[in-house]
Specification:
Number of strands: 14
Radius of gyration: 16 Å
Strand content: 35-45%
Order of helices and strands: EEEEEEEEEEEEEE
CATH class of the largest domain: Mainly Beta
Number of helices: 0
Shape: globular
Number of domains: 2
Structural class: mainly beta
CATH architecture of the largest domain: Beta Barrel
Largest sheet: 8 strands, mixed
Distance between the termini: 48 Å
Length: about 220
């Protein structure tokens, strides 16, 4: 079987992802995270605050997180560097668990979020909530692509992994740390979850609920 036909995380038999304009809201808040050998997605949730997955910041040896100063955030041709990071407590770096703690809030040295930052939801999303999952993904280099018509499958506790948002969004390698974007009651865009893990060979994944990530 060709290598491209092997099951990969977050992709099923069909691929609904499509390019989205990286210079228009809400997509213009979604950038690339680079740390050690990791390439992930991060989202501006404040003037200098970027949320992503904690496992995206693990060093090449897999034993520790890279220093904040070695984390790079790229957005719209601009580059910012990390200054400090707050992360989910109790996260085992070697096991990359529990998934509920797989988040990191990076403070960057440049206020790229002014006029474009998205809000972290303070409420749990309801089952069936319509979502979009945008990300800078390894199989689509140089393009921001998104699944625009996926949904929350369940908001609940996943055993020892803790409280998570289960969803049926398509997103593969590189989508770690990407936002689950929904509409709030006023019609604005809000981040209801941060992508932590994707199912092998299926368009499904789990995300850390936005309300579990502290505001800065």
């Amino acid at each position: 079987m060709p290598a491209w036909a092997q099951p990969v995380p977050g992709l099923g038999a069909t691929d609904p992802r499509q390019p989205v304009p990286a210079d228009q809201a809400p997509w213009n808040a979604v950038g690339e995270i680079e740390a050690a050998e990791n390439r992930c997605t991060g989202t501006l949730v404040g003037p200098r605050s970027v949320v992503t997955a904690q496992h995206c910041l693990i060093n090449a040896e897999g034993r520790a997180l890279v220093p904040a100063s070695q984390v790079v955030f790229r957005l719209g041709g601009r580059t910012a560097h990390g200054v400090s990071v707050v992360r989910g407590q109790g996260f085992d770096i070697a096991l990359e668990q529990p998934w509920r703690a797989d988040w990191a809030l990076l403070t960057i040295d440049t206020p790229l979020g002014e006029g474009r930052a998205l809000r972290l939801s303070r409420e749990p999303p309801r089952d069936g909530t319509l979502l979009a999952l945008p990300g800078w993904q390894h199989d689509r280099p140089g393009a921001l692509v998104a699944d625009l018509r996926c949904r929350v499958l369940v908001m609940g506790t996943f055993g020892a992994q803790g409280m998570l948002v289960g969803h049926n969004c398509t997103g593969t390698m590189g989508s770690s740390g990407a936002p689950l974007i929904a509409r709030d009651a006023a019609g604005g865009f809000v981040v209801v979850g941060v992508q932590a893990k994707a199912a092998l060979g299926r368009s499904q994944g789990v995300a850390v609920p936005g309300f579990m990530i502290p505001l800065r």
